[in-house]
Amino acid sequence: MARWTTTSVARAASRSASGRFLLRVARDLGRIQFVDRGMTLAAHAFTSIVPILIIAGALRSRLDSQTGPIFAEHLGLDAATAEILQRSLPAGEQELRATGVIGIVLLVIAATSFARALERSFRVIWHTPPNRLGFGWRWLAALAAVVIGLALVIAARILVQGDGALTLLEFVIEVVLWSALWWIASWIVIDRRVTLRELLPGSVLAGLGFAVAGIVGRAFLPLLLADSAHRFGVLGMTFAYIGWLLALAMILLVAVTAGRVVHLTYAGRAWRQSASASADRR
Questions:
Q1: Are 280 and 116 in contact (CB under 8 A)?
Q2: 234 vs 35 pLDDT, higher one
């Protein structure tokens, strides 16, 4: 019965252009196993963020003493949650010296894990072949693009605040910044095998998705982090944050997949190009 119902829905949807578009997106998402791939991206994003926090915390004493409180305030955390977060990060330069050169190298390698996972995801979505051996520098470049983009988004949130028109302006700015971030990062990480024009629809959709997620996150994420911290401490914050990263990763995968279908539809190849083309699923 369920099989018959699914088939009937698919046949009904295929009668309209929008229905065919949604069917193609759903088929491609199933092909890439986007839930499992989203979990992989979220895990790698977390392991990439933690090393950066370690280095930033070790260098914090060289910066303004207000850096920590401002960071916690920007996240919207209450005093107790902010204190838990601050205690979980390194407090001075001794930690940085203790890691040594080898430790820093290992941290950089761990930080590029997200870029590597992103490259594999884009390669599967766009059916591109494995990258060359000399691709390593692009992982660093893609990670740098993501970090710079995040910094610009945070700066925009600090500089553009208010009600009414300013809130709309802030949303538009975030859409532009997020779109530019994923447009450039994806072009770098896929080794320019897909043109910027082809990547633009998915990047714009990702920008919209992340901007909307930012609104939702600022409303609910601080409450979720605070509740998890009070119940389970730093471990609770970790699980809550990984769950949020999973939601963002799935938004990105859906946006990029839908963007590819938009490009193929515009080019008249949405149904002539098989979604079952051979690709590396690792």
A1: no
A2: 35
Residue position matching structure tokens 């993501």? 146
Band (pLDDT 50/70/90 cuts) for residue 50 is low
- How long, in residues, is the chain? 282
Tokens of 248: 């963002």
pTM of the shown model: 0.80
Give the model's pLDDT for residue 51: 64
CA distances from 256 to 26, 119, 179 (A): 12, 12, 11
pLDDT, position 175? 94
232: amino acid identity, one letter: F
* Surface-to-core class of residue 95, CB atoms within 10 Å of its CB (0-12 exposed, 13-18 middle, 19+ buried): middle
Give the integer Cα–Cα distance in Å for 20 and 135: 37
pLDDT band at 18 (very low <50, low <70, confident <90, very high): confident
- The Cα 149–Cα 250 span in angstroms is 19
CA distance 207 to 177: 7
* Helix pair 79-88, 67-75: axis angle to 10 deg: 120
Q: Which of 148, 82, 124, 65 is nearest to 260 (CA)?
A: 124
3-class secondary-structure state, position 224: helix
Section 223-245 average pLDDT: 82
Alpha carbon distances (Å) from 163 to 144, 167, 168, 170: 32, 5, 8, 10
**92 — pLDDT class (breaks 50, 70, 90):** very low
